[in-house]
Fold this sequence. Notes:
This protein is α+β, with helices and mostly antiparallel strands. Among the domains are: about 340-470, Immunoglobulin-like (Sandwich), CATH 2.60.40; about 490-625, Sandwich (Jelly Rolls). It has helices spanning about 25-45, 60, 65-75, 85-95, 100-115, 120-135, 150-165, 170-180, 200-220, 225-245, 260-275, 285-295, 310-320, 365-375, 490; strands spanning about 10-15, 165-170, 335-340, 350-355, 360-365, 385-390, 395-400, 415, 425-435, 460-465, 465-470, 480, 495-500, 525-530, 535-555, 565, 570-575, 580-585, 590-610, 615-620, 620-625. The strands form six sheets. Strands 13, 15, 17, 18, 19 and 21 form a six-stranded antiparallel sheet that branches. Helix 1 packs antiparallel against helix 13 (about 310-320), helix 6 packs antiparallel against helix 7 and helix 9 (about 200-220) runs parallel beside helix 11.
Amino acid sequence: MSIRLLAIVSAVCTLLVPARAGDVTQARIDEAIAKGVEHLLRLYSDGFGRGRVDARTGPELVDRAGLRALTAYTLVKSGVAPEHAVVERLVARLAFDRMEGTYDRACMLLALQAIDPDGQRAWIEDLARELVATQEKAGDWGYPGGGDLSNTQYAALGLRAAQRSGVEIPPAVWTRLARAVLAYRTRDGGFAYTATAEGTTGSMTTAGIGTLAICETELLRARSLDAVLERELPRARAAGWRWLDEHFSVAQNPGMSGWLHYYLYGLERAGALAGVEQVGDHGWYTEGARVLLDTQDGAGEWNGTFEREATLFALLFLRRATHSVAPRTVEPGETKVQATGTVLAGPVWFAADGDGPVRLSIEGFSPALRAECEWPDERGAGLRVVRVEYLASEVPIAVVLGDPSRPAGTQRFDVDCATLPPGKAALRARVHLRAPARTPANEPARPRRGSPEDALGPVRVVTSGVLVVDVRNALPPPTVLRERRPSALAAARAVATTSSALRGDFGFEFSDFGARFAIDDDPRTPWIADPKDANAVLRIVVRQPLRALRLRIEPPQLAPRTPARLVAPPEVDVVLNAEPARRIVLGPSGGELVLEKSIEVRAIEVRMVGKPRGDRLFGIGEVVLEMP
Length: 628
């Protein structure tokens, strides 16, 4: 049950003004999203989404793991339930894919964080560990290999998703990343695809802004932002926004002819991550949404640079997917009138809703603070917010950036925090504001448009009172990212064969759940025996003999969830080399065989004892040899 800890009395007055055909309304946005979602659900009903393939691109681009992961993410962020059959088929298929590239791993992290951050914590940790391991020496990412800002921004998004799922990313990763992205700046204030290029583009400038915003918030949260980056990151972001203001367009990607929808989604991410609702005089969301609403085809698609990416990026833009809470588009003639009632006194009116995840937000400021900190000619328009820090027992748990170049209006600086531990939590908000500078005559100075960050007036820090919440539905405690030892059998390139394997079940488009899955170092890919096989046997030949002290049998698992009828056999007989068989009893967490002394293993035979009854299936998730 959600516990409302702060109430803001609000009223909405709607004038009866009919919407014109070209107006950007929430109704038109919702209709376009629904139409696009229905189209994607039809295309990906088999979990692959091959469907129509453009002859210029070929099926290899359509069947990329990263594109299917981005599709699952888009569907869930667009309102499709994580339990929907198409989403589950996509995730189930992706569990059997090798995530070998930066885009694949990052998009899979985005999808898992949106779908099931609790149940898929182990998978999220594996992907995050692989991303961290492939960070280049300079601090950026390539395919892997080399380095470019496009791969780098997706790595940052993936690691941010892992962090929000409870997997702690070392602060050194964010520091190296921030320094690397600063090297992608161009002389005109924007960002380029490579650190040596001079061709500034809109898509790479939004990538640079968004990635620096991620680094800044994560380092502030970890209390690891050094003085140089604390000064340089806001300046670089402000310069990027100035470049976008000077070259603003939503009809094309500034600086290049292609990748319009990739750029628009980049604009949505940068706006959400950096707290910017307006670029110069342009409301980037309203203008971009108008273009997308006018260009969606009858099937629900948008035509882009290559197969289907445009539809995904367009839906994510329209849905404002990067925001914790997507702002609602005001209908024509509608105005929002906000009153100032609250149960919490003090300069900052702070809200914390829910019992896990807890939604944190700023609902307003006291009249005295507004009178003191509003700028000339901006009375009633709000304060200039640099950032909001949410604290639990005075320790930062989340940071949301603002746009200090203009008043914040009714922005709420929402964030959902799912990583608070169960129990009572004392929460507080700390807000950094840009107050107007005072002249010798004690008159507030007028802000200058396009001023650098440090010329916007002095920073003032104000805090809210404390709200005590009872956190119940929380994620498991945060996981510290540690090095994981690969499976000895996978590293030794062992070969597995079996007496049988299940064919064509669970809606998969696979020929079998073969023996190779029992030694592939992936707990989500099991070997499943044919239920008609009364004497199912798994045989493993170790090409490079391994010395071992313990053998472990992991239970079978499937993602996103394991059917109740898929279980480990109650017992197995294990034969190592030519020695007598040893029996292992398997429980819900599997079982293990501990040897009296370490031996050199050349061959392993695992014999299932008994035959499954009813509709049950016997499987083995992984055979693991542990070294002395």
